[in-house]
Amino acid sequence: YTVKHSKPKEKICLRIEVKSPREKETNEKTVAREKQRDYLWITMDRLNGPPRLILVTDLDCTLVDHDDPENNDLLRFSALWEAHYRHDSLLVYSTGRSLRSYLSLRNKKPLLTPDIAITSVGSEIVYGGESMVSDDVWEARLDEMWNRDIVVEETLKFPQLELQPEKSQEQHKVSFFVGREEAMKIMKVLPGILEDRGVEVKLVYSNDYAFDVLPRGAGKGGALTYLLEKLESEGKKPSNILVCGDSGNDAELFDIPQAYGVMVSNSHKELLQWHEENAKDNPNIILASERCGAGMIEALQRFNLGPSVSPRDVLDSENFQEGILDPAHEVVQFYLFYERWRRGEVEKSDKYLQNLKSLSSPLGIFVHPSGVEKPIHEWTDELESLHGEGKEKQFRIWLDKVSSSHISSDTWLAKFDKHELSEGKVRSCSTRVLLSCQEEKQKLMWMHIHQSWLDDACPDDDKEKWIF
């Protein structure tokens, strides 16, 4: 092609490339792979090397105990993870819930932000905690030999199968309610019917009612295997893996050869039966004596995977520092004492307030989320009037996404989100704490605290009760 130019004797030549649909599709897949790799590296970026531990856990009735309205064991696990594991390990949620349902649960329970979430029984993988970026490469892989319309058409021919609500349905998951006896019969014939129509599936039955039809490569085990292969290919193979579950759709997790596994004591009978038939002689898979989060903590101890005493189980509120010069442990323990003070679980004694003052610099400043600035010692004095006022309000505090960076030889900057639950309302703020090491006293000194409301959610009441 030629284009006229202002100088008649000169020409500008344009080269136009037309790519075939196949070339375009190949390029799109390459871009998707690179984009997905970037998301994984964003997740891994806070680690200095391969993860020390990848903890993979189901949510309902494993990490989350719906029979415990106080969420005691969930909070115990959260404090343990943030104090001792977040800095060099990965937390992965693997749930049968859809992404929407999982996010709804997070609004109701004090769940930590995971590094990776595997949702819809392994048919979707999202990265980056709050950013929730889907893995397009994984979804493209599941598209092979899968046709949702055909699956729906053929399954509707079984009147015993009752479609679950629309919120439980996903592109790569078709879900039903059905009794165990009927489910066993259908599982024998449905794969062959679909295979004759060019669709290869995996059937997962759990909790004596949930029947899920997935692409052949999906499932919690398939998704975890995919992630582990990706990490290994990038030279980030984890030192240890712990999988935790309670129901039939978790069984695949325990098939990961290199993983330790714990079935919590409240596990469903289909998982217990799987254990009896497949893993009763495997020392790397245990049935915990404790339920839910407590069983997960038990497994950390049984397999010697790292610290297994939650800061919530350390009751010495007067000397909670214990000589551990670790910023993450420090901030978790500080806020646990603060919670106990507000709940009236420690004695109303001036010695506790004086101990708190000894942990902060006399010149230290606290910037309240409202923007008000005061010396830390003045805020500490205001605690006296709040002793025990949260006792009847189910007052709880938990920290999330705790990280620390060494900004000089003896100074750390700790970052985290702090959440307060009181009378059913959650107040949240982003927090930055400057800590200085006082080696002669073997403790960390709080030099500066700065907080800001998360999501511009400035509470319109009880402002005066937000301290630290």
TrEMBL record:
Its EC number is 3.1.3.24. The keyword Magnesium applies. One of its GO terms (biological process) is sucrose biosynthetic process. It catalyses: sucrose 6(F)-phosphate + H2O = sucrose + phosphate. Pfam families: S6PP, S6PP_C. Residues 52-304 form the Sucrose phosphatase-like domain. NCBIfam families: HAD-SF-IIB, SPP-subfamily, SPP_plant-cyano. Homodimer. This is Sucrose-phosphatase. The lineage of its organism: Eukaryota, Viridiplantae, Streptophyta, Embryophyta, Tracheophyta.
